[in-house]
Amino acid sequence: MSQPVPATLYRIAAAAGCGSAVILLINAAKRAEVIPTSALTQLIAPLAQILALALVTALYLALGRRTGAFGLVAFLLNAFALSALVGVEFVINLVFNDLPDYTVEALLDGSLGIALTAASILFLLGTLAFVTAMHLTREVPTAPLVLYAVGAVPVSLRAFVPEAALELGLVTLAVGIGWLAIWLFNRSGRITTWADHAVTDIPLAGANH
User: In angstroms, rounded to a whole number, what is the distance separating the alpha carbons of residues 194 and 55?
Assistant: First the structure.
C-alpha cells in the first residue's frame, strides 16, 4: 500500500486547523451569548484543541525540525499542553455546566483547580515557545504567529481576566490558527521536508575535486 505524500498530510492538517478555528469562534459566540448554549456546542468545544494539535504537528514536521532541539522541546511542550487542555475543556463544558456554582467552586478549591491552572500555564508556555520556534524558521508569516500568541494569553489566564477579554482572546486565537492553516494548505505542495533539506546541505563526494 502506498503511503500518502507529505503535501496531502499537510493539507489534511490544514483542514483540521480550519476546523479548530471555526470551533473557537463558536465557543466565543457561545460565551458572548450570540448563539445559544446547547448540548452540541458543549460537546464540540474540546475538539478545538484536538484539531489544533494536528495543525501544530504538521507545522513542526514540515518546518519546525529545522530549529533543532529548541524546536523539538517547543513542539512537545505545546503538544502536551493541547492534550491537557482537551481534558480541561471536557471538564468545563461537560461537567461544570451541569453542576451548581457552589459545587464547582468547591472542586476548584481542591486538586482539580491546581490541575486546571497547571494545564493553562503549560498552554501559555508551550504556545509562546512554539510560536518562537516557528518564527525562527523564517518561513512562517509573522502576523498569524503573533495573533496565535496574543490570543493564547487571555485563554490561558481565563480565571483571572474579564469575560470580554477571554472572548476577544478566543477570536484572536481562531484568526491566528485559521490563518496558519490556510497558509499551510497553500504552501503544502512547495514545502521541502527537513530530511531533503539536510541532504541538500551535504556536499557530494568528489564535488570539490
Answer: 17
